[in-house]
Amino acid sequence: MVYCFIRRGDLSKLINYGESLGIDLVIPEAIRDNAITITDWEAGSRYDMHFVVRIDTLEKYFNILDEWYKQIRSRGIK
Q1: How many CA atoms lie within 13 A of 49 on its CB side?
Q2: pLDDT for 33-57, tens place per residue?
Q3: Residue 56, CB half-sphere, CA atoms under 13 Å: how many?
Q4: Spatial separation of the C-alpha atoms in residues 31 and 14, rounded to whole Å
């Protein structure tokens, strides 16, 4: 058995890992295209007290994620 540690906050690595397992991932294009930036927001905001992301940008991605979550839930995935 091979043990591999995946950083849970790194979206690109999580997407690639899921796909390598043959999991049919339905991920919004905006999330896929900006996975590195979104990962940077998560990590940067933890360690940099002066980290800034525009509120309209956060709202945009929040709405994308909210819609994606609703789609996933409608398929019975929790």
Answers
A1: 0
A2: 999 998 888 878 778 888 888 999 9
A3: 0
A4: 12
CA gap 78, 32 in Å, rounded:
21
Global confidence as pTM: 0.72
Tell me the DSSP string of the chain: -------TT-HHHHHHHHHHTT------HHHHHTHHHHHHHHHHHHH-TT----HHHHHHHHHHHHHHHHHHHHTT--
Rounded Cα distance between 77 and 37, Å, is 26
Sign of CA dihedral 41, 44, 45, 46: positive
Place of tokens 């927001």: 41
Task: Report the C-alpha dihedral over residues 26, 33, 68, 21, rounded to 10 degrees.
Answer: 30
